[in-house]
Amino acid sequence: MSYDIIVIGAGQAGIQAAQRSAKHGFKTVLIESDLVGGECHYWGCVPSKALLRSGHVYRAALAVKGAAETITRPISTDKVFEKRNALTDWWDDTGIVKKLAAAGGFEILKANAEIVGIKNVRLTDKDGKRQDIKAKEAVVLATGTLAAIPKIKGIESIKYWDNKGATSSQHVPDSLLIIGGGPIGCEMATTWATFGGKVILATRGRILEQMEPFAGDMVKEALEELGVDVRLGITPVSTGMMGDDVYVEFSDGTTISASEVLFATGKTPITNVGLESVGLKPDGFLNVDDTLLVTHETNKDEPWLYAVGDVNGRNMVQHQGRYQARVASDAILARSKQLPLSTKPFVPYIAIADHSLVPQVVFTDPEVAFIGLTEAAALKKGYKVKAVEFDMAKLSGAVLRQDGYKGHAKMVVNVNKEVIVGITIVGPEVADLIHSATIAIVGEVPLGKLWHAVASFPTVSEVWLRLLEAYGL
Ligand SMILES: Cc1cc2nc3c(=O)[nH]c(=O)nc-3n(C[C@H](O)[C@H](O)[C@H](O)COP(=O)(O)OP(=O)(O)OC[C@H]3O[C@@H](n4cnc5c(N)ncnc54)[C@H](O)[C@@H]3O)c2cc1C
Known about the structure:
Layout: E1 2-8, H1 12-23, E2 28-32, H2 38-43, H3 45-62, H4 77-87, H5 94-103, E3 106-110, E4 112-117, E5 120-124, E6 130-141, E7 145-147, H6 163-168, E8 175-179, H7 183-194, E9 198-203, H8 213-225, E10 229-232, E11 236-242, E12 245-250, E13 255-258, E14 260-263, E15 267-269, E16 305-307, H9 318-336, E17 359-362, E18 367-372, H10 375-380, E19 385-391, H11 396-401, E20 408-414, E21 419-427, H12 434-442, H13 447-450, H14 463-471
Flavin-adenine dinucleotide binds next to α1, β2, α2, α3 and β4.
């Protein structure tokens, strides 16, 4: 069988690559060895946000006089699990496969895929049946990642959760030790503490250390208010079972035991897909250029091998993987038409947004929404910057939204161009505020113009006006 494009891995990045390639008129096949929909749908974004949402609404209601008095019962975890189970289709992809097939445009095959030569892929289905297929234009790798579990002493002797266990559990553990203070660790601490379990979060550095320090500080404070025991600056060194509980010994000599332990300690790419057959021996994430072409000899004369989504490690969030998939499909189209590829920044086949233009939301409570560079990162890049901050509790929109509103925003401006290069907003339900910042930053809208983008009263969006005033406008 031959296709124009073979996409390996039907997570969100792979599905998007297949959809866009089909839209461009390419005969496309999408191969998946497990569940069509990938991590995001079954063990990532969807179940985690389904688990978090009820707690956010519950606490928001408790913070509004008049509504608070009507809340007389604790959160119903059974109902939350029911909602999460429905949104993840009970970890069954029949519905998604049917929906994609009904939309048409590309074929879906359930099999393990392995590259066996340039543009050649071998499929092995669950019964061991093999089939070799060939791509005329390109093979797109979208094979994602697995949880990276630290190789500490005793690890093979314990039961533990990774993101799959943490997002699909049908019971609330009496006690949960979370190792890792990044977005997944913090979101899962918020989730399981909300449901009444005792949660201990241990991390080697600070909380959310890739972000502005105030974001981590505010999330830490909120986690502690929820009853989470946060331990900073410690790393696990060994582990074992003590009856039904797991214990972990840490670098500072402390030992913590819990009924479950979750490792939220990063991800490792899935690259065991026969790449050695084309001379590629990946050591970690797959390096790609801005058209998502794998940077390797095999692509030198005739570009054919692309990698999109988490497997390239550029920005491991769903929306960025889907963006890369659109870019890669457009690059394949441009190359197939032998168009000279322009290097101008805003063309569809260059993933410019992967560089310092990545929005992300951490759905803790308060939420952390940010895009671009932190002040420290902007200074490191050599920008001349001015950073301004604003206490969002002073906004009328915040006061009206909930009693005791806590929120904070920071804007980092490149003073030479008078454009924003980074924004971080922390507060209840600020997730959707970040897209206005994304537009301002991607569009390099000068501050003088933004001054005329008037936010409605009384909304939390008035934080824009306050940040511009703080800058000196
Ligand atoms: C708990 C958690 C919460 C998250 N929350 C968010 C969020 O709120 N927002 C956000 O943007 N991101 C979030 N993410 C990240 C997001 O889930 C990932 O960025 C995204 O799912 C990656 O998609 P992908 O398509 O690159 O890979 P995956 O979804 O991992 O898909 C890869 C697919 O390839 C298949 N595969 C692998 N090897 C082969 C092979 N040889 N043959 C055939 N198939 C193969 C796999 O079975 C898999 O289905 C979260 C992640 C976690 C763990």
